[in-house]
């Protein structure tokens, strides 16, 4: 069984309240392009992310607004920032690293920075059809002339509806020569 790869660069999700602190009262997110997951989009809004060690520009806000504010970075980014965020499922912010999000109008400082886990977006029907109802984690296998391999600890993230796709961060993708749109094999343990 195969799945298409979506490579995820660093980005953030925000609450409506934090969006208005960052961009001003009444500000709404404007879509510049839809994402594969139903109802989600890349917005035109960008922020800076700051720690005591580093400030990085051009972190895109993905919409729509969420019930939590979250900054997703790679392990490589964490070295530049001088922080050690946990690997977490989106929305699970226990132990998240503290960062400051800077917008054109205001800033927000909170423990909201994580490294997103490897995960497959899958709906219940597809999960049942593929015989994956009894597992929460799989492996991925891919071939490449120089760097084929296997990735462990890929979580199944069931949502309905869902676009069937695995999300890898830029570190996983770059280290393994995997590109956005590549197809990899799911291995059930």
From TrEMBL:
Listed EC numbers:
2.3.1.222
Cofactor (UniProt): Zn(2+)
Per its record, the protein catalyses: propanoyl-CoA + phosphate = propanoyl phosphate + CoA
Q: Name one GO molecular function term.
A: acyltransferase activity, transferring groups other than amino-acyl groups
Key word S-adenosyl-L-methionine present? no
Q: Name the keywords, alphabetized.
A: Acyltransferase, Metal-binding, Transferase, Zinc
Domain of life, per the record? Bacteria
Q: Does the keyword rRNA-binding apply?
A: no
Signal sequence range:
none
PANTHER family per UniProt: PHOSPHATE PROPANOYLTRANSFERASE (PTHR39453)
The entry's family comment says: Belongs to the PduL family.
Could you identify this protein by its name? Phosphate propanoyltransferase
């Amino acid at each position: 069984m195969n799945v298409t790869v979506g490579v995820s660069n660093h980005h953030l999700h925000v609450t409506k309240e934090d969006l208005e602190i960052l961009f001003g009262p009444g500000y709404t997110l404007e879509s510049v392009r839809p994402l594969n997951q139903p109802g989600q989009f890349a917005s035109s809004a960008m922020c800076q992310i700051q720690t005591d060690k580093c400030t990085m520009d051009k972190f895109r806000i993905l919409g729509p607004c969420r019930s939590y504010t979250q900054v997703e970075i790679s392990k490589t980014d964490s070295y530049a920032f001088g922080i050690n965020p946990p690997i977490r499922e989106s929305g699970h912010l226990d132990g998240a690293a503290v960062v400051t999000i800077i917008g054109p109008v205001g800033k927000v400082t909170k423990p909201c920075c994580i490294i997103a886990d490897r995960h497959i977006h899958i709906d219940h029907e597809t999960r049942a059809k593929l015989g994956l109802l009894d597992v929460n984690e799989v492996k991925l296998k891919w071939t490449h002339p120089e760097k084929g391999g296997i990735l462990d600890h890929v979580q199944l993230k069931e949502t309905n509806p869902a676009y069937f796709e695995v999300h890898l961060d830029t570190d996983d993708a770059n280290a393994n020569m995997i590109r956005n749109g590549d197809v990899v094999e799911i291995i059930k343990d």
